[in-house]
Amino acid sequence: MPRFKRILLKLSGESLQGEQGYGIDVKRLNEYATQIKEVLNMGVEIGIVIGGGNIFRGLSGAGKGFDRVKGDQMGMCATVINSLALSSALGAIGVKSRVLTAIRMEPIGEFYTKWRAIEAMESGEVAIMSCGTSQPYFTTDTGSSLRGIEIEADVMLKGTRVDGVYTADPEKDPTATKFSDISYDEVLSRGLRVMDITATAMCKENNLPIYVFNMDIVGNLKRVMAGEPIGTLVHP
């Protein structure tokens, strides 16, 4: 039996770059699709939110002179491109998916509602939810928290290139140590960048646990669902 019945999988846009350093690496995209299919075949209902940082990040754009609102809107469009790419990769291996957009843009995707997403998941489709919250000044992490709470997910699985939560950035500090589990309050008090503060606070207030793991290692998503302790659980 899988560890969780319904998940919100948050994927990093940057991770989609793979070894290219920009855009979408088809190899990485196909690896993600294969991992998602494995978990879907376990009977898990899957909702997905993908960032857009491999194409455009609104906050960094604002630092280069872009209007912040327009920059964030560009970032929302970037998440749609990534969502369409993942949907295409899933379709190529026989997995049905539905792209839902928080901003109306039919026929590119259906307009997002909680009930459309749940309907898709309950029918065996992967619900891919794009455009973040549809509002500027909110990150995709916050959009993921919101969607996870709305679709009544058992957990938010945050797939990153790091295998959990550490006392410091392990890519910069070799002495950093990993937590097997940690509370929301400790994450906030230590200032650990699991997600932004708004996203973490939303999960805390709505009792949505977060599991941080390395999605870039093929097979890790299935290992998480099988209960292997390969990441960090953030919980009440």
Structure description:
This protein has 236 residues and is an alpha/beta fold. It has a single domain, classed as Carbamate kinase (3-Layer(aba) Sandwich), CATH 3.40.1160.10. It has 8 helices and 11 strands. The chain starts with 5 loop residues before the first strand and ends with a strand. The model has no long low-confidence stretch (mean pLDDT 95).
List the helices and strands and how they pair.
Elements: E1 6-11, H1 26-40, E2 45-50, H2 58-62, H3 68-92, E3 97-101, E4 110-111, H4 114-122, E5 126-130, H5 140-150, E6 155-160, E7 165-166, E8 178-179, E9 181-183, H6 184-190, H7 197-205, E10 210-214, H8 220-225, E11 232-235
Parallel strand pairs: 1-2, 1-6, 2-5, 3-4, 3-5, 6-10, 9-11
Antiparallel strand pairs: 7-8, 10-11
Helix pairs in contact: 1-3, 5-7, 6-7
Question: What structural keywords apply?
Answer:
236 residues, alpha/beta, Carbamate kinase, two-stranded antiparallel ribbon, 37% helix
Q: What's the CATH first level?
A: Alpha Beta
Q: Assign the CATH topology.
A: Carbamate kinase
Helix content: 25-40%
Q: H/E element string?
A: EHEHHEEHEHEEEEHHEHE
Give the helix/strand class.
alpha/beta
Strand order of the largest sheet: 4-3-5-2-1-6-10-11-9
Number of helices: 8
Radius of gyration: 17 Å
| Average pLDDT for all residues | 95
Count of folded domains? 1
Q: What global shape is seen?
A: globular
